[in-house]
């Protein structure tokens, strides 16, 4: 299969080498080697079933034990795809935001502090500081600062998703994985989540799976195109969208399949 993977020549946040993911008899990701530059947004695009979510979930060891993940995932010079590496520690550094907002049925405040307390942070000044900083980073603070004890379930869908982003940021991760974070949101909430992502790039590396090609071209610096479980093309987003090297990428972005 024709492929084109551009070298970034940038400092990397994480990289996979020959990654493959197998569910029982069904191999969903094949021989995928990709580099994710630090403090950039990389979009993973491709048709339904092309393996985008499966690949993303392997980056912070979200797959359960029944799923086989072969190959290397290099993070800070360590292959984190080794059984001896604790997946809970990995997830503190590499957070995940899901497609549907999934706040806890707790107050806004407790959504943020829950994981912190579980990780032994109990000093109330530190907790208050993290609540404020995380909500500000997720562009939600101004809307909720007077209502921190309100149930998160009373927020709108878009606010709930930004709360989930704040919750992921409260542990000060290095990388944020986002699986279709705006697909359940209306256009105004989507724009707020995208604006939040653009701001976060300064401090975080973001990898986003999206069906929405306009979204990929609006928010991302780099784009990886997946087809049938393989990386077909990886390059700067403008190059992927304007001058794709591979015919299959061109067909996909021009709407000829998918
Ligand atoms: N938990 C699972 N168990 C078995 N097979 C799975 C599981 N999750 C995904 N698959 C299979 O892996 C392949 C890739 O699915 P995946 O969800 O990663 O694709 P995707 O590109 O993210 O699709 P979509 O855009 O529809 O979410 C598909 O064939 C799918 O049926």
UniProtKB/TrEMBL annotation:
Domain ABC transporter: 14-253
Domain of life, source organism: Bacteria
Gene3D superfamilies xrefs: P-loop containing nucleotide triphosphate hydrolases
CDD domains: ABC_PstB_phosphate_transporter (cd03260)
Keyword terms, alphabetized: ATP-binding, Cell membrane, Membrane, Nucleotide-binding, Phosphate transport, Translocase, Transport
Protein name, entry field: Phosphate ABC transporter ATPase
Keyword Membrane recorded: yes
Matching SUPFAM superfamilies: P-loop containing nucleoside triphosphate hydrolases
Record-linked PROSITE patterns: ABC_TRANSPORTER_1, ABC_TRANSPORTER_2
GO CC entries: membrane
InterPro entries (alphabetical): AAA+_ATPase, ABC_transporter-like_ATP-bd, ABC_transporter-like_CS, P-loop_NTPase, PstB-like
BP GO annotations: phosphate ion transmembrane transport
GO MF term list: ATP binding; ATP hydrolysis activity; phosphate transmembrane transporter activity
């Amino acid at each position: 299969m024709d492929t084109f993977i551009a070298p970034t020549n940038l400092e990397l946040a994480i990289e996979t080498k020959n990654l493959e993911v197998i569910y029982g008899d069904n191999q969903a990701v094949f021989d995928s080697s990709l580099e994710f530059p630090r403090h950039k947004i990389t979009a993973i695009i491709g048709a339904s079933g092309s393996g985008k979510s499966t690949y993303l979930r392997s980056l912070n060891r979200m797959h359960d034990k029944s799923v086989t993940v072969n190959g290397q995932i290099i993070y800070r010079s360590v292959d984190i795809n080794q059984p001896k590496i604790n997946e809970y520690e990995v997830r503190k550094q590499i957070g995940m935001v899901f497609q549907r907002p999934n706040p806890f049925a707790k107050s806004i405040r407790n959504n943020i502090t829950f994981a912190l307390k579980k990780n032994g942070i109990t000093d109330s000044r530190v907790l208050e500081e993290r609540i404020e900083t995380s909500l500000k980073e997720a562009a939600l603070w101004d809307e909720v600062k007077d209502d921190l004890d309100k149930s998160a379930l009373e927020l709108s869908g878009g606010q709930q998703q930004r709360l989930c982003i704040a919750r992921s940021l409260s542990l000060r991760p290095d990388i944020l994985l986002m699986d279709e974070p705006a697909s359940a949101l209306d256009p105004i909430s989507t724009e707020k989540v995208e604006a939040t992502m653009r701001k976060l790039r300064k401090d975080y590396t973001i990898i986003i799976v999206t069906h929405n090609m306009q979204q990929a071209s609006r928010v991302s610096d780099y784009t990886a195109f997946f087809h049938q479980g393989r990386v077909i093309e990886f390059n700067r987003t403008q190059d992927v969208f304007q001058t794709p090297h591979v015919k299959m990428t061109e067909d996909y972005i021009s709407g000829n399949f998918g």
